[in-house]
Design goal:
mainly alpha, Rossmann fold, six-stranded mixed beta sheet, 16 helices, disordered N terminus, disordered C terminus
Length: 447
Amino acid sequence: MSSEQLVVSPSSMQSMIDSVQASLESQYLADDRPWVVAFSGGKDSTLVLQLVFNMLLGLGKRATKPIFVLSSDTQVEAPNVAAYVTAAMDTIQRAATALQIPISTILVRPTPAESYWGKLIGKGYPPPSRWFRWCTSNMKIKPSRRAIENITHNHGSVILLLGTRISESSQRGRAMQAREINSRGLNPHHEIPNALVATPIASWSNDDVWEYLSDNPCPWGGNHSYLFSLYRQASGGECPVIFDLNTPSCGGSRFGCWTCTVVKEDKSLQGFIRSGEEHLQPLVDFRDWLIELRDKPGYRSEVKRNGNAGPGPFLPAARQEILEALLALEKQVGLPLVSEAELVYIQHEWSRDFDFQGNSVHDVATKYGRDIAMPGNPQETTHPEDELLEQAAVESGLNPDLMRELLEIRRRDFPSLDKWGAKSRFERAVGDLIKKAAQQVEQTTQA
């Protein structure tokens, strides 16, 4: 919590609450579009969900439109944060069911083919860097967007409620103020079709958020004491549910993935350790070891998969070494770090690359007490074009997120460059995209 709390008068705070509650109620009753509340477990998304939950309680029997609470588990989140979010989602769903309000919780995860260990150990991808950040689209954007697309398929369109605030950062504030909004204060999502975006606490300050959470208990039961303790320990911020590439990597000072190699230091995880979570230190050591391997001679192929000069993927012996070290770490810390489905997928990739007998993963897993059943080929859920795009990015040493966004701009906004002025507008759009990517790199470097 901020060490320099602003004094907010009760009447001023109540006025803010009443204004947001009235706006939410008006928006909710205005049409039949279902809502999706992005919930990361951090303070901003908790505040938005709490306001929505209280609104539904106030509406009583008039609350009939479905609301989906969407959260993302990359499967490599900081273990204490992941456990907190999972428990919160369970509590929210039980309370909503008991109170008969139309809330459904959705916890999305990447498929084994999209997962961190599936990419790094299975395919041999190098750990993500600020220049080659392949993790965000695979582990966060794709799973969340699949859930959104399923809802829009059934309901036609949705309204996304996000906890973004203008005062979070100057860059975030400029981006939010530049968006076009309709008469109801909604703006179309620039990447998800049939989705409008609402930011009900956009004008709230950091101190306003803490003031509200301190004075108002969870309507789904319990209190915010553990959330407060996470922030005190981590000295960081919330890593939001990510739907697009406008959101930077969540390393640095935010709750993020314990494997994050995009930043120099995971400040939130280090904060947890300094606050008494010493059992997490081996995770930090393992993450640092992965960074060393990224450029260590003899660990990566000297040629890329397309035959051009390297550095290419991790060599088979390196992938086997990383898997064994990961399973040893799992046993050491007593936490599940890699799923059975991921191990099956890793074996699938190894069998295609080098392990033609198809039993190496099973043998290593057995050594560390994991009894893994190895079926035939796992079902691939990635689209062929996504796989080709990502492979091209890997072979070229480019950021796959940036390439994907560039192609999406070309396909969505500029289907033809023959129209007058289209080429110049396309060039500006490409320039803006590159500038945004450079700003994300700069932010990550500073973190």
